[in-house]
Structure formats: C-alpha cells, structure tokens
Amino acid sequence: MSTPPRLRTGAVSVTFGRNRVLRDVGFEVGAGEIHALIGQNGSGKSTLVKVLTGLYVPEPGATVEVDGVPLRLPVRPLEARASGVAVVHQSLGLVGEATVLENMRVGRLRAGRLSRRIHWEHERAQAARMFDRLEHHVPLDTPVHRLSEEDRATVAIARAMQDTPPGGGLIIFDESTRALSRRSLEHFYEMLDGVVRAGTSALLISHRLEEVADVADRVTVLRDGELVEAGLPVTRRGEGELARLMLGRNLAGLSSGGGHARPQDTPAVELTGVAGSRLDGAGVRIAPGEIVGVTGLADSGYQDLPYVLAGVERARGGTLVVAGNPVDLAQFSPMAAIDAGIALVPGDRERAGLAMDQSVAENAALPRTGGRGSRLAPIRRRAELAGLAPWLDRLELSPRDPHAVVSRLSGGNQQKVVLAKWLARAPKVLALHEPTQAVDIGARETIVAAVKDAAAAGCAVLVASGDENELSMLCDRILVFRDGRVSGELTGSPGPDEIVAAVFSSTDRRPLRGHNEERGLVP
Ligand SMILES: Nc1ncnc2c1ncn2[C@@H]1O[C@H](COP(=O)(O)OP(=O)(O)OP(=O)(O)O)[C@@H](O)[C@H]1O
C-alpha cells in the first residue's frame, strides 16, 4: 500500500456573502517536500490556509486529511496542531519585545497542577531542543527585536517545529519570508532544507516567484479561487513560466533602472544630517525625476528614511529642503509633509493608516487637508473617485469595487489601495518602503511602471528596500547605509548581484537551495 500524502484537501469551497472565493480546491503536499502555493492578490491563498487552521468554515463536501487521517471539519485549531500542522505568519510572525523563550513558548506554557507555577527550566529545555534539531543556537533571553535578521528567521522556524513531530508534520509559511533580505533568505532555506530532508513538509506562500523557482519542489497555482495547476514539478521552470501560469498571460519584460534623472537640476528634495533612533548623520539628495534607492543591512537605519521624509517618524535633528524651502526635521509633521507634496507608501499596512472598517473610496479620500465641511466637498469627492478609478483598474484591485470595505480585502489588495491613493494625487516627492513587497508579480510590474511614469513627470522618488530585485528594477542610483549613514553609492542602474555585493561586502550570492535534481526530491 502506498503511503498517503502529508496533506490532502478535496473539494474545498468558501463563500463570503455572494462572493465564492474558493471553488473545489483539491491538492496534495507530499512528505518532505517544499510545496509552493502561488496566485495573484485575492486569489484565495490565505483563505485556504485559514480553512486548514480552522479560522474559516468550508462548505459541506470538503475534506482535509493529514497522513491519510481525515480531520473533522471545520478544522479545530488544536486538532490541526496535534496532527502536526504549524503556521508561520507574515514577516515571521514574532513579537519583537518578547524574548526568544517567550516567543517560543507562548501558548504552550504549562503550569504545575498544584503550584500553578510555570516550570521555566522545563520550558527552556523544550525550546533548546528545537534549536538543537536545527543545529543553530540563539540566546533564549534576548528580546527578538535585538536579534539579527538571520537569528529571527531561525526562531520562526524553531517555533513552528515544536508542533511537528521529528521527520513529520507540515509547516505553512504564509508570506513569512517577505521582509527578509537576500542573506537571511539564504540562511532560512539552508535551515529549511535540513528540516524537509528529515521528512517534514513545507507549504510556501510567496509572491517572490524567483524564490519559488529556486526552492520549491512542486507548485500549486490558484486563479480567482480555482485550481490552475495542482502539484506541478518546478524543475527548470523559471520565474517567467510561473508568472504565466499565475496570471494566465505573458509578463512583459521589465527594464531595470529609472533613467529619467536630470541630476543637473537643483534637487527636488534634500535631507542632511538626519539623526534619529537608528540614523546618525544620514543625507540624501534627489533631483526631479530621479529614483534613488536606499538599502543596507537590517539594522543600518535605511528603512527609517521614508518615514522621516514624510514626517511620520520624528527625527532628533537634521534639515529637509523641499522645493527650495528649508525645514527643521525635529519640527516636521505628516500634515506639513502632505502640504509640501510628499507622499508616503509604507511597507506594512499597519503603518499605512488604513481605516479598516471604511471603504476603498473613503480611504482614498483620507487625509483631507482642510475644507472638511465645505459646500464643495461632494464635488471634490466625485473628482477624487474619478481620479482613483484608473489606478484601481491599473493595479487590478480585486474585487474592483471602490465601495468594498478594506478589512475584507486580501493583504496585497490593501497594499494596492494605499498605492492607488497616493499615485492618484500626483505627488512631488514619493517616499516608498518596499512598495512591491505584498503584491503579486502582475501588480509589481504595474507599480514599477507607474513609479517610473511619476518620475518621468518630474516626481522625485525615494525607495527604501532590502529587496535587490525591487531596487534594481526601479532605481537610477542606490545609496548603501551602514551605522545610520551613507557608506557607499552605486550608480548607473545597478543590477541585483552588484547590490547584494555592496550590502554584504562580498560577491558571494549563493543559490537559495540546490537544484531539484541535486536534491533528488523530484519524483
Ligand atoms: N472575511 C472576509 N469577508 C469577505 N471577503 C473576504 C474575507 N476574507 C477574504 N475575503 C475575500 O476573499 C478573496 C481571497 O482573499 P485571500 O486573502 O484568500 O487572498 P490571497 O490570495 O491570500 O491574497 P494576497 O496575496 O493579497 O494575500 C478576496 O477577494 C478577499 O476580498
């Protein structure tokens, strides 16, 4: 008798109101494989994960089996956990302020039956065992936000492994790796390779198709809630082919670099001597039409710059000159930034100021700068909606409805709302933090084109990113940060390898995982 797959789903359908978001989804994940689940924003990936973990109830007729044993539906979260299914959420899903030990053991702490006291020695031993299994050790008493990015990735895997029996179980990574830099990704997959070689399975959800092509053994593709492919071997399938399967069309080739710079002009924006929690004398000058990237190691401070430029993060000191007017950064505010024509697209939606219980259109109208009660408000509102609609079309918002409530949109679609809102306002300066992080490859193409169009029209663009592919697609010039200030500059539309080499001071860009044939895992 052949061994059953690690996970098998059958006829999983989910409907919200009149919207059927999953339709008869049946697929299998084998033992010891990395299985990727890909699809455009809103195609139903997270909904499927939420069915597997018991957050959403599938329609009658669905089946979910782990190692051939059917789970009762709707899935009971504790039963899923007991059968060896673990989930790592977006951006590793760790609590920064809590220690490694607390992150490892939260939800699992056991108090003595009589004393009601927690046996910390037992908890430490349990946590340490996982790091032994991974052969990587991380200090248990350090708060997670003080760890290196690589160590944080180790903790996320170790934490999930607690629910999987040695050599068994399934870890679901729901966009967990999306904020990791190249070097941390290499480390992450080195560890995960060891875990799956021992027999544990991984279900990987990621919009980085280059990563999927590098590391996955097989791929399942969802389009509009339906299966397009189930368990297709990934061997020798490049990013382009995966994109075609996902989008149902060919992806136009993306040119790299901005190419619209007019550096002889007086700068549209200039930051000097910026001091903040992680910044220490940083400075950037951006000409009208120029797209400048800032990058570096995770703790180098470059990520703070868009927020300082948009007045969202108060700097301790430094000067901003925008359109020839100097401003003391210690006195700067978000409203002053908006008035100066500076727009911010943050990296995570929590910082994006989305009003989750309001519609897409209502969010696009926020914040209003003055004239709230004016008789002209309805006219302005209609004009705003008219300006927004083409952007919602261009970014393929799903559902394409300006009246949809934001909390009901998928994560990537929420990100698109923030982008559409600011792009529709034709800002003078755009401050972007990982602008394509949560969006699918089709929308990434559109966003890159839209940012370049904005630059061509004279907008000065700052892009903070740890993703060398994103930087290479967008930027004319890249500043590399170290210890809170600029330590190097790459000009002439640098490529991804050059960027990684500059950030890590080494030219060694290892493959994320050996080829499928080498791993001997492809049937
Ligand atoms: N609680 C809900 N109520 C109503 N609609 C919902 C709810 N949750 C999700 N949806 C809808 O279900 C569809 C699928 O969403 P889902 O989050 O599964 O997409 P996804 O493939 O994970 O997208 P992304 O890549 O953007 O994260 C979307 O159209 C979304 O608007």
Describe this entry's structure for a reader.
The chain is of the alpha/beta class and 523 residues long. The chain folds into three domains: 1-84 and 166-254 and 513-523, P-loop containing nucleotide triphosphate hydrolases (Rossmann fold); 94-163, no CATH class; 269-368 and 377-494, Rossmann fold (3-Layer(aba) Sandwich), CATH 3.40.50.300. Helices cover 31% and strands 22% of the residues. The chain is built from 17 helices and 22 strands. The protein has a six-stranded mixed sheet, with helices on both faces. Strands 18-19-20-15-21-22 form a six-stranded mixed sheet. The longest helix is centred in the last third of the chain and has 18 residues, at 377-394. Residues 369-373 have low confidence and may be disordered. Bound molecules: adenosine-5'-triphosphate. The site of adenosine-5'-triphosphate has 19 residues, from strand 3, helix 1 and helix 13.
